[in-house]
Each structure stands twice: as C-alpha cells, then as structure tokens.
Amino acid sequence: MVVLNKIYTKTGDAGETALGNGSRVAKHSSRVNAYGTVDETNATVGLARQHASGEMDAQLAMIQNDLFDLGADLCRPDMEKDADAEYQPLRMAAAQVSRLENEIDAMNAALEPLRSFILPGGSALAAQLHLCRTVSRRAERLTVELAAMESVNADAVKYLNRLSDWFFVASRIANNDGKDDVLWVPGANR
C-alpha cells in the first residue's frame, strides 16, 4: 500500500532520483526518461478519456492502470535479482500484451482496410488517441534504447509496441469506424 503524506522530499534537488530498488540515478538517465515518458503517455490517456465513454473508456482505464504497472517495472532495474528481492517486483506480463492484441483484433474487425495513410484528427477523441499513439511511440523508442544498455523486461517493450497500434486502431473507431478518418493527400499543397 502506498502512503503519501508529504509530497516534496527535497531529495531530488541535486538532480537525482531514487529507482524502485533504492539506488539513485540522474533524473536525465535513460531509465528515468523511459518511465517518465510512460507517465506522460498515461497523462495523454487521461485527456482522451475526457471524450470517451462506454467500452472505449473502460479499455482506456485498463490501459492507464497498465501504464502504472509499466512504470513500476521500468523503475526497477536488475531483473536478474528479482528472485532475491524482499518483495516480488511488479513486472509486465504476456497476458497484458495479449489483451491489447485481442482488443486490436476486435476493433479492427469493424473497419474497412486502409487504402491511404490518415492524418491525426477527425473527432476530438480520435485526435487525442493519435496524441496517445505518438507519445507511446516515444516511450517505446526510449525503452528500446534503455534495453540496449540495461536489462529490460521483454514484455514491457512488447506492450508499448502493441499499445501504439491499439491507439491507432482506436482512433479509427473514434472516427465513426474509420468513415470520418482524415486521409493524407500526397503533394496536395505543392
């Protein structure tokens, strides 16, 4: 259980922060950049939810919770020491990736195949979901960069890869099942 009585601690005033295992790193480290961008993704999902309802809102709520799980996973280095940890660290699981895949497949079944690239926009919800997509792609790039230097849970990377696809397909659903997608017209303004 988390208890936050005091919000500021002053421990980061010198430009360092604590990771989930208690070690301290620079706030600009690759690991902090990765989970910080996951947090930013979560904030964009909160904005999208202002325009969502029903099943879409419920799915976005699950994604927000997953993103907290993902942040917890990424802020805890040294996966090889998980078995020796005082408590079992929270790690992303293959089931979370599979859930996204199943939801993508279900949403995509209602859509006509794309014959053009689409521009981010259309309805307010679709525009917000495109923002979620681009921020989650940045989180993925930063996490892949981190994984090239340090140990990262493979399911964390897979989740981020599927998540941006989920946001793309969901944006088409939010655009009247793709009927109101804004199509790219190559060279239209030459």
From TrEMBL:
A single GO cellular-component term on record: cytoplasm
Short name of one Pfam family: Cob_adeno_trans
Domain Cobalamin adenosyltransferase-like positions: 7-173
Catalytic activity: 2 cob(II)yrinate a,c diamide + reduced [electron-transfer flavoprotein] + 2 ATP = 2 adenosylcob(III)yrinate a,c-diamide + 2 triphosphate + oxidized [electron-transfer flavoprotein] + 3 H(+); 2 cob(II)alamin + reduced [electron-transfer flavoprotein] + 2 ATP = 2 adenosylcob(III)alamin + 2 triphosphate + oxidized [electron-transfer flavoprotein] + 3 H(+)
Location(s) in or outside the cell: Cytoplasm
InterPro entries in the cross-refs: CblAdoTrfase-like, CblAdoTrfase-like_sf, PduO-typ
Chief site of localization: cytoplasm
GO BP terms in the entry: cobalamin biosynthetic process
EC number: 2.5.1.17
Protein name: Corrinoid adenosyltransferase
Organism per entry: Litoreibacter ascidiaceicola
